[in-house]
Design goal:
Two copies of one chain form a homodimer. With 295 residues, chain A is an all-alpha fold. Chain A is built from 13 helices and two strands.
Chain lengths: 295, 295
C-alpha cells in the first residue's frame, strides 16, 4: 500500500465533498459564507473525516452513508480552530500558513463563521436523519448523540486548556485537557465509522481503544512539533508554547519523555488493529503517520 | 384570564425546567458551567420557550413532549446573546441589568460558554430523539431540521446586522436582517409547538403567519424601547442605536411610523388566531404584551 497516495485520495475525496456544502450564492451574507469557506478549505489534513471513512471500510465498502458525518465532523473541527485562534482565546495570527480567520476577515465575522460552521454540522446531520431509511435511524440517532456529547467535551477541553495557561498543572489535568480537547473528537470519528458500519460491541471497544491512543499520540506529536518543528513546514511559529508558558507533554515529560510516550502509544494503537489484517492497513499506517508527520 | 399571572407561571415553569440542565458538579470546567448558568438564568423573559408551549396547548394538554425543545431554544437564544455582546461584535457591557457574560467572566469564557450553550441545545435534542417513541420520530426529526435551519438564519441575520452597521440601508435589507436575526427563531418556536402537537397544515400556516408578525412586531418594539425606553427598567443604556448609527425601524420610519407599523402587525397577528377562540387567548394576549411591554 502506498499510504501517501491513499491519504491523498481520501483528502481529494473529502475536499470535493466539502465543496458541495459551500454556499456560493450572491446574498447579503456572502462574506460570512466566504469566511466559512476560507477556513473549511484552508488545506487541513482531513484527518477526522478520513478516520470516519477508513474505519467504516474495515466492515463495509459503500461509503456514501458516511459522507454526511465526515462532512459534519470537519465542519466542527474548523469551527473549533476559528474560535481557538480568536484574540480572546489563543490570539493566533497564522494557521496552515495563512492568516487566521479573524485576521483575514474580522473578529465579528470569525466569531459568527465559527458559530455558523458548528451549526451547519448539525444541519447536515438533521438532513441525513430526514433522508434516512427507517431501519437506519436508530444507529444514526445514537451517532447524533455521541457527536453532540463529544463536541461538548471538545469545548470543555479548550476551556480548561485556556484556564490553566501559565499555571503548573498535574499530569492528570494535562490528560484531562487532551482527552477532551482533541481526543474526544478523534475517538468520535472512529466510533461513528464503526457504528454506521454496524460493527459488533467488541469491534467498537477495540476501535475506541485505538482511537484514544492515536488521539493522545496526535497531541503529543503536536506538542513536539510546536517545540522542534520547522516553521516553514508547519505554517505557524515554533516555540510559542514556551513563551505562553503553555503546559504541554514536552513541558511535562521533556522532549525525550514525550517521544517515548508517543512511541509506546503508537505501538499499542497498532496492536489493537492487528486482528483486522489488511482491512485495517490504512488505519495502521495512519497511526505511524501521526507519529512521523512533520506538520 | 390574568395574563401577567399566566406569564409568570410559564416563566417559573421554564426556570425550574432549565435548572435541571445545569451542571453543578465540581470539575475542571466548573467556571465554564457557571458562565453558561449565569446567562441562562439571568432573568430573561422566556418568550421563546413559552411560545413553544402555548402553541402546543392550543391542540394538546400534556406538555411534557415540548419541554426538551423549549429548553433547547432558550439555550440557543442565550448563546446568541452572549456572542452578540462580545467586544468583537456589539461590545455591550450590560444585559438584563447585569454585566454581560464576558464582563462577568472573561472573553475566552464567554466565547466558549456561547459555543457550549449552542451545542448543549443539540445535546438536548439528540437525547429527546434517543428516548422518543418510534412513531414520534418523524415529526421530531422535522423539528430538528427546522431548528438547525432557523439557527443558521439567526446567525446570518446577526452577521448582516453587524456588516451594515453605520451604513444607510434599504427597507429590504432591514427586513432581511430582522426576519433572520429575531424572526426566524420566534417563528420556529411556534412551528415547533404546532408540529409536535400534530397540527394540520392549515393550522401550521396560520400559526406561522402569526409568528412572523409578532416576530417583526417584537423587533420594532425593541427598536422603539432602545430609543425612548426607561434605562432603569430596560437594564441597558438607551439611545445607543443612534450613537452607533444602527439602522433600526425607528431610524427608518421615525418613531411614529414605527409605532403605526407595530400596531398594524399586532392587529393582524391577533386576527390569525381568532379561529381558535379561547384556546389561543394566551397567544393573543402575548401579542398585545409584545406591543405594550416596557422592557
Amino acid at each position: 500500500m502506498d499510504f501517501k497516495q491513499e491519504l491523498k485520495q481520501y483528502q481529494d475525496l473529502m475536499n470535493s465533498e466539502l465543496e458541495k456544502y459551500i454556499d456560493t450564492r450572491e446574498c447579503p451574507e456572502e462574506v460570512l459564507n466566504r469566511s466559512m469557506e476560507y477556513s473549511l478549505m484552508a488545506g487541513g489534513k482531513r484527518l477526522r473525516p478520513i478516520l470516519v471513512i477508513a474505519t467504516y471500510q474495515i466492515f463495509k465498502e459503500d461509503i456514501q452513508e458516511c459522507m454526511p458525518f465526515a462532512v459534519a465532523i470537519e465542519m466542527v473541527h474548523n469551527f473549533s480552530l476559528i474560535h481557538d485562534d480568536l484574540p480572546g482565546i489563543d490570539n493566533d495570527d497564522f494557521r496552515h500558513g495563512k492568516p487566521t480567520n479573524h485576521k483575514q476577515f474580522n473578529e465579528a465575522t470569525a466569531i459568527l463563521a465559527g458559530d455558523g460552521l458548528l451549526n451547519n454540522a448539525y444541519r447536515v446531520i438533521s438532513k441525513t436523519l430526514e433522508n434516512s431509511k427507517k431501519e437506519d435511524l436508530s444507529k444514526k440517532i445514537k451517532i447524533f448523540q455521541e457527536f453532540s456529547d463529544s463536541v461538548s467535551k471538545m469545548i470543555v477541553g479548550e476551556f480548561v486548556d485556556t484556564e490553566e495557561e501559565g499555571k503548573q498543572i498535574s499530569e492528570e489535568t494535562l490528560e484531562y485537557i487532551h482527552r477532551n480537547k482533541t481526543g474526544a473528537l478523534l475517538t468520535l470519528c472512529v466510533r461513528m465509522g464503526a457504528i454506521l458500519a454496524e460493527a459488533s460491541q467488541e469491534d467498537l471497544n477495540r476501535l475506541t481503544a485505538y482511537a484514544e491512543k492515536i488521539g493522545l499520540a496526535f497531541q503529543i506529536k503536536d506538542d513536539i512539533l510546536s517545540e522542534e518543528g520547522d516553521e516553514k513546514i508547519l505554517g505557524k511559529p515554533v516555540g510559542n508554547d514556551k513563551i505562553l508558558e503553555k503546559c504541554t507533554y514536552v513541558s511535562e515529560y521533556g522532549l525525550e519523555g514525550a517521544k517515548e510516550k508517543l512511541d509506546k502509544l503508537t505501538k499499542e494503537a497498532i496492536e489493537e488493529l492487528e486482528v483486522y489484517n489488511e482491512k485495517a492497513e490504512f488505519l495502521i499506517e495512519l497511526a505511524k503517520y501521526i507519529k512521523e508527520r512533520n506538520k
